[in-house]
Write a structure and sequence with these properties.
With about 200 residues, the chain is mostly helical. Helices cover about 75% and strands about 0% of the residues. The protein has seven helices and no strands.
Length: about 200
Amino acid sequence: MTSSKHTPVHTSRRNWGFFARWVGAFIGFPMGGLVAIALVGKIETSLDGLIGGLAAGAVIGAGHWIASRQTKLLDWSWIIAMSLGLGIGNAVSMALFGAATDATSITIRAVVTGGTLGILQWIALRRHFPQMIWWIVCMTVLYPIAWIITRFVIGESVNDGFIVFGAAGALVFQLITGLVLMELQRVFQRQIPNV
């Protein structure tokens, strides 16, 4: 007899529960941004990008880990991946392209940061999904989209030199990555049924 714990309906509810928690973790982006502002203020140099990115990434990554801890899909390495990805990505993009806040500059820097973040997140995910090299491409595309949305919503406030995109961009980012991770969770559950 099959336990009700593992019925398709229960699994579906659990997956949607994960999705709801993951989307709710969008709040980590503004919180991480506030921590970065407290540490370095306006992001103007590569060092600011490194320190602010490390701090913001740790806060965002911790929020992601908390949202997903019941799934066993992500572990503590996700926090490190977020922290290093945002720190290194922002530092490199600031060194290469400066701190300008026009749409083109923000988008180009976001491509670099998103790509760096994608590589490090892929390393964290590949334990369960070694074929997920496409995650790098996903982050390289999605991260700039979130910044474009933020720039559209907050307008000239982007001149304040934020380390991460705002709540509107974060919500879209979390919705899309949440759907992808929910599907990965389904795959993971088929591989290891007791998860």
